[in-house]
# Entry
Amino acid sequence: MIINSWSSEVYKNIALIVLDGMGTEQLDVLSDSVTDYFYKNKYDTIDTIVPSTTVAATTTLRTGLLPVSHGLLGWSQYYKESGEIVENFTNCDFYSGESSHLTKPPLEKMPALLVDQINDISEWSAFEVMPQFITPEHNTVEKWCSTIEKIANTKNANKNYIYAYWPEPDSTNHDHGILSGEARNCICNIRDAIINLQNNCPDTLFIITADHGHIDTLPLFIEDFTGIADTLIMPISCEARCTQFFVKPEAKNSFERIFYEIFSEKDFLLINKETFKTNYLHWYSAKNRVLEDESIGDYVAIGIGNKSLHQNQKAWEEFGSPASEHAGGTASEMQVPLIILNNK
# Structure
């Protein structure tokens, strides 16, 4: 609809820019000097997917598929093949840090990327512009923008689709919280780089969004609560605010009661596997299911307050002792801006 509204015939380039973790609510609470540019050009506020997290949402943006069809549910995921909880992006065991024993890393099992499909079947040229952990020379937002600019201003006959992902303000939010001066400065820096990029690319329609938002959180540790820990077959997985619980058979009938004796209904929505598959993953309407049924816990706890769940303090600290997290069901995490920089 957006492409039709600003017809691709008008522009040589269409660039989808994904700013990791820049939710609508964070923009709402920051000062006008940060948000004026983004709000002036905001087309709408939209909801991200469930779970509201980078691994699932950016893979959806890169493939055009929901997690049930691309297979990546969260930062960590249980795989029956190796019996491990594996970090999807690194192929390492989440708890030991060692390389997994999977036959194929999770990223190698992904369906075809949209850029590859576009290059294969259309007259358009398609590109991905990624940050330093994939493209080492993109160690600043300015260098990343410079590559987008070079593609956009290349003199060729083809029209171009550019998918460009930047890992901020997510990292800064995790480290300092969404209301911090550091987060504000980070977004200011991104804003300035994008203003310059827009000015230098008059024949480009820029569509800016985020994979998810953030919420400042307080951690809770599963191993501090033996009533819960004793019911589990394995440590928790997926995300701290979309947490998968694999429950011992003898505890399944009592798990919900035990959970809410310990944790508040104001902090977590606990749902069973079937409800999660049907209502949140659209399992039964999916034409192609890549996500393994065995990767989904017997119960899933979705954060709806400001608490997060970690296996223990050590796991939380090794994950960076985050001040802010995501993957839950609050508006702060689910709602992201849809910003259109229309140069014509």
In short: The longest strand covers residues 13-19. The radius of gyration is 21 Å. The mean pLDDT is 95.
